Amino acid sequence: MTKDKYIEAIGRRKTAVARIRITDASKMTLSINDKEFEKYFPTQELRRTILAAFDEIPDKFAVTAKLKGGGISAQAEALRHGLARALITHEPNLRTKLKVKGFLKRDPRAKERRKFGLKKARKAPQWSKR
Prior knowledge:
The protein is of the alpha+beta class. The protein has helices at residues 37-40, 44-51, 72-90, 95-101; strands at residues 7-13, 16-24, 29-32, 35-36, 61-68. 29% of the residues lie in helices and 23% in strands. The chain is elongated and about 75 Å long.
């Protein structure tokens, strides 16, 4: 990568979408929706979920991300998915390691829609004989 170029990738989970740009940098910085990484993701568990994509390589990237949709947990997993996609664009030999960990799979599970005549997606009203 040259100095002013970046790699762009998209990560998704449920209804959350993460648009990611990574650029080379001297130290690791993460900016999410123009906020600091620690402010956007307050819990250590969510931070660990995201930074798991960087386990295989040294932290030498500046990451900017735009997140929308879903909840905070789905956004964290969408961000990890996008980071993994961007990293294999940068270093293709990481693909097998990230794929084994499951970071390249888009988790398609989403809430099932409510059907006509039912109370929820599958819950039917109580049946009575008379």
